[in-house]
Design brief:
- This is Putative isoamyl alcohol oxidase.
- This protein has 536 residues and is an alpha+beta fold.
- The protein has 3 domains: 138 residues, Uridine Diphospho-n-acetylenolpyruvylglucosamine Reductase, domain 2 (2-Layer Sandwich); 130 residues, Uridine Diphospho-n-acetylenolpyruvylglucosamine Reductase, domain 3, CATH 3.30.465; 230 residues, Vanillyl-alcohol Oxidase, Chain A, domain 3 (3-Layer(aba) Sandwich).
- It contains 17 helices and 17 strands.
- The strands form 3 sheets. A 7-stranded antiparallel sheet has the order 14-11-13-12-16-17-15. Strands 5, 6, 7, 8, 9 and 10 form a 6-stranded antiparallel sheet that branches. It has a 4-stranded mixed sheet with strand order 1-2-4-3, covered by helices on one side.
- Helix 9 packs antiparallel against helix 10, helix 9 packs across helix 13 and helix 13 packs antiparallel against helix 15.
Amino acid sequence: MRKDCWPSDQDWSAFNSSVSGKLLQTTPVAASCYPGPAENSTQCGVVNKFWTDAAWQGEQPIGYDYPFNQSCLPVDISAGDVPGSCTLGDMPVLAVNVTTEDDIVKTIRFAKSKNLRLVIKSTGHDILKRSTGYGSLSIWLHNFRNGVDYHESYSSVNTCAKTNWTGSAFTIKGAYAWSDVYPLADEKGVMLVGGNNKGPCSTGGWTQGGGHSGLGRYFGTGSDQVLSARVVLASGEVVDASPCSHPDLFTALRGGGPGTYGVVTAMTFKAFPTQNVTVTYIEASSPTNNTAAFLDVMALFYSSFPYLSDAGFAGYGSWSVGSPAPLVANHTMAYTQSLTLLNSTEAHAIAKFAPVLAKVLPYNATTDISLSITHRSFPDWASFFNTKPDTVAPVGAVGVSASRLLHANALTADATLLRDSLAVMAGSPDQQTYHNINLHGGAIFTHAQLDPYSSLLLPAWRKAYVHDIVARRWNGDRAHDEEVARDIREVKVQAMKRLAPDSGSYMNEADYGNVDWKEDFYGASWDRLSQIKKSS
């Protein structure tokens, strides 16, 4: 940073006074573990204890749970660890611990007047690293929390005649994580279309980037649920966005990109009466590590996903031919998925799943494949969701990932292409490539036809049955890590693109090095979103 371009000490002091002393000089979270003025063995012990805790990372001004910060990793000198380097890396140099809307307004105006790079951080869960920025000033939203209001009938508070929602709703006033909000919905006997991962901010990047959910197949994406938003614009002006006020901004906030059009200080979301849930649990593995047989089975499941979604199933799963950790029992060549049916019965789930079971069951008669299909009923959504093991942020999972949205044609048109693509996407067992998949469809397909203010989400969402994330881990060796990144970008993702060339990628779970980001993250919505950005 050039000193002649940087605000003077007097400038910073005056600004700090204007925000009631909330300006923070940032230091790396693990700085206490390194020789220097911040060294503190007691604090270093705390860092080592909680380093992999997503909630704890979110409580730090520059704590990031994903992607993992590698510029200052914790060390345990008492255990013989040798300290390496500890720098800020690409993290903000200063942060404002905002607690009021006025703090945000003043921070934006100061940054604009001094031509400072400005970033926004709520929880620090951002694969594209949009909440970081070298030499930047950060609006840290973690402590900006002004309550959550429940509206049994939205019509009692709705002032926009163009909004016809009369069901329940929640107004979330601040940077509350989904883990903060879900218990409130459970108390009221309603469901919110929120993240499968409970860590991300409900009003932040998850929603503004689209937001996939275990309930998405039934009600639409997370962004489809937004009824109104309150926003601080780049000018410092505070506006309310809805179909009746700033409708273009309202549309852009519903899936057009996080932290792009302003700082969201409140959002109102639809809520739905809870329903009973029937879950079909799939576990498939290869005890003999027969890659060919395992991928044959995976191809059958992939080709069945459109049928399963159309039959009402939805849910998350993962698979690998060599997972870093066992997925099923002690097997690392395995696939597991939980498929839900709302307002259903086990008998109905068994009947609907039967055609898929008939396809894969013959493989269970061999020694190469072990298959288990079980069913369980829950009285409501919360009872099911609270049993799920995969709702905590993957802190410490250092690596590179990318994603692709797969439509029906990609999954069913060419069985040979699908099977060949899966072989490339899987990689070899020693690569430890793993896939996280989300089966959706349903209401996500139809919502934009019913709601014109949902029209600027990446169009590929409106026809994709599967959101497929592919990932590999780094080991800290530069040459190895660069090879891993090339493999994901130039091999695995290219196979996915050949399978679905006219699709795209979910911007919140994509490769930050994607050179085709405009097409893959925005598609045909880019031009209109760009116009809205310039006007806001």
